Amino acid sequence: VATGLHLDRDPALPLRVGLERALREAVRGGRLRPGERLPSSRELAADLGMARNTIADVYAHLVAEGYLVSARGAGTRVAATAGPAVSGPPAPEPDDVRYDLRPGRPDLGLFPQSAWLVATRRALNSGTAAALGYGDVRGPRPARTALAGYLARVRGVVADPDRIVLCSGYRQAVALLAAALRDQGRARVAVESPGLPEVAEMLSQAGLSAVDLPVDVDGVQVAGLDGLDVAAAVVTPAHQFPTGVPLSPSRRVGLLDWAARNDGVVLEDDYDGEFRYDRQPIGALQGLAPERVVYAGSASKTLAPGLRLGWLVVPGGLLDAVVEQKRLADRHSSTLDHLALAELITAGEYDRHVRRARLHYRRRRDELAAALDRPVLGIRAGLHVVLPLPSATAETETLVRLARAGVAVNGLARYGSAGSGLAIGYAAPPQHLWPSALAALMCELGPDVDNPGHQAGGLPGGRGATRNLHAVT
Ligand SMILES: Cc1ncc(COP(=O)(O)O)c(C=O)c1O
Question: What is the per-residue pLDDT across 441-461, written as a single tens digit (0 to 9) for each?
Answer without folding.
Answer: 999 998 744 554 444 333 443
